[in-house]
């Protein structure tokens, strides 16, 4: 499951990266006009970048919830295993006393 989540996370992040690059071309970021503040960006592009940002935030939230669920389930499994081991140890007969010394 961990490997599958890693693969899905990687694919999603690559998609978000290239989608954001498509929406905000690098030429816009490094142009002289942009440094002077003479560039007009259509609102639809800004809106699309904002939506991508919210999708990324949502994905991070899902990963956080899944991570905490794994931690919670792991703690429960460890507690259950410890209780079972204690129950088995309590049910086992006590060890035989050592033989008396002559």
How would you classify the helix and strand content by structural class? mainly alpha
Strand content: under 5%
Please mark out the parts with pLDDT under 50 across 5 or more consecutive residues, or reply none: none
Number of strands: 0
Give the tags:
rod-shaped; mainly alpha; 102 residues
Summarize the structure.
With 102 residues, this protein is mainly α. It has four helices and no strands.
Structure, explained:
The protein is mainly α. 79% of the residues lie in helices and 0% in strands. The chain has helices at 2-23, 26-30, 32-36, 43-91. The model has no long low-confidence stretch (mean pLDDT 77).
Q: Which helices and strands, and how do they pair?
A:
Blueprint: H1 2-23, H2 26-30, H3 32-36, H4 43-91
Helix pairs in contact: 1-4
């Amino acid at each position: 499951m961990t490997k599958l989540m890693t693969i899905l996370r990687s694919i999603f992040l690559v998609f978000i990266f290239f989608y954001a690059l498509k929406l905000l071309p690098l030429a816009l970021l490094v142009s002289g006009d942009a440094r002077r503040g003479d560039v007009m960006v259509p609102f639809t592009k800004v809106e699309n970048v904002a939506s991508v940002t919210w999708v990324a935030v949502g994905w991070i939230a899902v990963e956080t919830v899944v991570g905490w669920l794994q931690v919670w389930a792991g703690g429960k499994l460890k507690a259950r295993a410890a209780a079972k081991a204690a129950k088995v140890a309590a049910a086992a007969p006590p060890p035989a006393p050592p033989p008396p010394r002559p």
